Amino acid sequence: MAAAMTGRGVTFIRNIAGSLQSRLQVLGGASQQLSCLHTSISLDSQYWEKNNRKVYPPQLPEEPRRPAEVFHSRRQIKYSKDKMWYLAKMIRGMSIDEAIAQLEFNDKKGAKVIREVLLEAQEMAVKNHNVEYKSNLYVAESFSGKGKYLKRIRYHGRGMFGIMDKVYCHYFVKLVEGLPPKPEQRTGFDQAKEYVQGLKNRTIVHSL
User: Fold this and answer.
1) Residue closest to 85 by CA, chosen among 139, 146, 137
2) How far apart are CA 169 and CA 39, in angstroms?
3) pTM here?
4) What is the tens place of the pLDDT at every residue in 46-70?
5) Which of 29, 83, 138, 172 has a beta carbon 3.0–4.6 Å from 33's, enabling a disulfide?
């Protein structure tokens, strides 16, 4: 009996080693193989703050002044990325003062975190990006991403247990100098027309 259990254990370990090796081969392959992997946020998000160090060529005298852009984020927030997404979407396209006011009267935990990040980004814009008026900013981009997920044991009665996740998320924001753009006026007919056009343009795999 012990020999049979030992044999099963060796087979199980070999199966795990084979699956891990195949996954490493996929990850180490070409970039076109990575297109099948699902990522919750953009691959450029790990370099989000590096956009602040981007240097543009000098402008000509007749060219309009290039608006300042401020990239800021906060990583590993003890909050769900799905709950954070609703708050991030709410302030997208708002002016900085309106976004801070909306978050100040929101009693959710994520609203306090986003408000702190916006205030930090607003201070960075004045100190480091030559923005004259701190109110002359709007939220151009605002989104959340998946952080680390820690698996923990939840104990039940009669010696049983379950698996729970300690979830974390990231928050990214981009402020642009100037007034927020006017929202595009779209009717229900325009949305339905765009939806039908998307259905026409889709590619059906293994079709005749």
Assistant:
1) 146
2) 13
3) 0.71
4) 789 999 999 999 999 999 999 999 9
5) 29
Report d(CA 75, CA 46) in Å as an integer: 10
Q: What is the pLDDT of residue 17?
A: 53
Rounded Cα distance between 167 and 76, Å, is 9
* Spatial CB neighbours of 164, under 8 Å, sequence gap ≥ 6: 151, 152, 153, 154
Cα dihedral across residues 139, 145, 147, 153: positive or negative = positive
What is the dihedral sign for C-alpha 172, 30, 35, 169? Answer: negative
Cα–Cα separations (whole angstroms), residue 62 to 55, 67, 81, 88, 148: 20, 15, 44, 37, 49
Measured CA to CA, the distance from residue 30 to residue 35 in angstroms comes to: 10
Residue with tokens 């989104």: 143
**Strand boundaries in 28-127, DSSP class E:** 69-77
Q: Which helix (H) or strand (E) holds 102?
A: helix 96-104
Distances 97 to 57, 125, 128, 136 between C-alpha atoms, Å = 31, 14, 20, 9
